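Margin note: ligand = alpha-D-ribofuranose.
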Amino acid sequence: MVLGSANMDLVVRQPRLPEPGETMFGSSFSTVPGGKGLNQAIAAARVGGSVAFLGAVGGDAFGRELRETLQAAGVDTDGIALVERPTGTAHISVLDGGENAIVVVPDANGVELPLDDVQRAAIRAARHLVVQFERPLPLVAEAVAFARSVGVTTVVTPAPVLPLPEDFLDAVDILVPNAGEARELAGLDDETDAARALSKRAGTVVMTRGARGALVARGGEIVEEVEPYAVTPVDTTGAGDTFTGVLVARLAAGASDPEALRAAAVAAAIATTRAGASTSMPTWDEVEPLL
Ligand code: RIB
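Resulting structure:
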């Protein structure tokens, strides 16, 4: 079960970011279904996960396309609310070299919706609940606390990073920050120290480090290093979401921690070799031969 955002990504390829007051040319424009929640749901479904999505979209063309994209990937969309706001958008600059800069306008994703009985029942029926922070934090925190109370494994990507309620991390089974998010959440300059510190609160911390792979921390110690799968990236958008979605799908399929982590790293690397977020995520047939 993924509770999260669905955005239409409005993507411009450009050589660099403009200065304030500057007008410059980009080389291409595209619209790509995205949003960290939608991306994670699709990544998990592509590698064989059985996935349902709890989200919110507007009654516009973007909302319809996002719903259809999830359905085409085999994701259960019964939990998508139709709200009186435009569908969320993300304004993404992809620079030469594949790095990106993103401005998210939450719109429908930001509507405060209570966690109702139907959603609670859906979460209760799941093996894992996966969340990020592009939906209202009170909703996310309530869902995580509820999932924890009924024995559903909670998986949190703390992006975009936000100040958290005091006891939030204690209800997290698997925290998947990138290095910058880990440093900010822990309030520490060193990423390894940050992963160690966060793992004294969350059960397991899987800190993604881009082209440097990932580190796993538990109980205040680094317990595993995940080697990167080396590629030449063209667009890193959605790579972190791919990592989380595939990690959870493989854990749910019964893979061991090292197997699931390796699959996540390979899938995320593949995603960086293709343009877009949801459009870049590999199927299991593409990941498995590379493991
Ligand atoms: O993580 C990538 C995603 O962040 C994009 O798809 C964009 O929609 C933003 O949510």
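The mean pLDDT is 97.
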